[in-house]
Write the structure tokens for this entry.
Amino acid sequence: MSVKLKALLKSPWVFHLSTGSCNNCDIEILDCLTPRFDVERFGMVLVGSIKHADVLLCTGSVNRKCIPKIKELYEQAPKPILVVAVGECSMSRGMFIDSYNCPVPLDKIIPIDVYIPGCPPKPEAIIAGVAKVIEKIKNSKLQK
Amino acid sequence: MAMVLYFIFFGFILTAILGLLVSWLERKVTARLQYRVGPPLFQPFTDIVKLLGKELLIPRGVSKNTFLLAPIIGIVGAMVVSTLLFVVNMYPDKTFFGDLIVVLYFLVLPSLGVILGGFASNNPLASIGASREMKLVLAYELPFILAVLAVVIKSGLAIKFGDIIAYQSQNGMFIASWSGVISFIVILLCAQAKLGLVPFDVAEAETELAAGALIEYSGPALAIFKLTKAMLFFVLPFLMTILFFGGFSAAHLLKSLFGFIGIIVLIVVVKNTNPRLRIDQALRFFWGPVTVLAILAVILAIKGL
């Protein structure tokens, strides 16, 4: 494994994107930073700009208005970037599946690496999901 | 040739390593103060290596040269200051007239790099961040220079690091005098603003400006900015150690080391116990009470206290 990849796995900086969620998943994500769970142990930090990020954390059922913005953010992110979908809404649109405002699920718009189910998922589940991302990177095409 | 070696070894490699260690200390102490575990020892090194391996994006419509030159300007400023401080601390006779002023000028370069980069980013948030950084520089430079002036007056108008160190090794540390204590407090507050830490982190205010002036930077350019900040985190306490504790000399190495670590811990504690000021509050704070304190220190120094 190259030094570059090893460093990436040890300090994944997370950008948090809400695509119209009910804020429940967002609160659970913020819980991961609290003393009880403390993801900074693994070098994870929430960053404010997508250009600093290594992981794009998406929550929420994808609104019509959000779709171009999601594409734009994904294109602006410095590669390699990992995309994580948190919560039922960003996976299958949850209870908004018949809504006029949520035409497609998130994975029809950008490629997703890990899905974390739950409404909302527990902080433990989110940390486990990010651990899975790390496992996936280790075995994926990024390894050259 | 020897100077180039010093520049590369002491100015860059050693300062970067020590600076990253200090920034780890800052993160760890912050975490412990919040009852967290905190990052492992090599976390800042990992961050820098990771950022160096990422893609460097240049936004559309920016001046490419200015955008990429800004981080280099910042890091060169930090490197020059650190080289000078190391050389005068190891060989006090290698000092030259006015090296203190050179250091004061070069210490502005990291902030100047942030300002240039922010304005070159073609992003409204970055512009706001850069303009705040500029106002902050204007705010803290006045008390900072006045406090340094108090030290200069106290050491018999020596604008040389060598003379300041020699004076302190003969007549005791400046921190033990009234004007020394007051100017120490003033420089500590200015160092907080120079490092962009919490009471004065208006330029990088993460909750309102995303990442402020650095918002458009990614990959290696961001790594250089982060490294500059880490290096400054070592260089500023080092400068204060020289000005107030007489540098790291063999005679009182322990006292100076204690002072150095004490300065870092004070900075971290101030960071963790204060909310962020607005830019107008920061400006009023520096031009009001802090400048008055600095003038008081100068007057006391003239009186010989």
